[in-house]
Amino acid sequence: MLTARLGVANLVLLIAFFKPGASFRMGMFALGLVAAFGAWRTARDFDWSPLARAVAALLAAIPMLGMAVCLGLLLKAFRER
User: Fold this and answer.
1) Are the CB atoms for 4 and 74 separated by under 8 Å?
2) Domain edges within the chain
3) Could you read off the pLDDT of 45-80 as tens digits, one per residue?
4) Global pTM?
């Protein structure tokens, strides 16, 4: 759940606040770190191995791909409820 919320928040913040240039790159970096942390924590809730959690976190840190990873984890969390 946390990852999906972070992914959606990343997209909203990206659209609302960041303009192209250095601030955009720094914003993408910061949001990528937040998404990676959320993916790491959410994958722990699924009892994934540390390697699988690390892969999910790395993929979540990549712009645009991270949003898809976060949404995928959200759907998995909803299905398991």
Assistant:
1) yes
2) 2-80
3) 888 899 999 999 888 888 778 878 888 888 888 888
4) 0.67
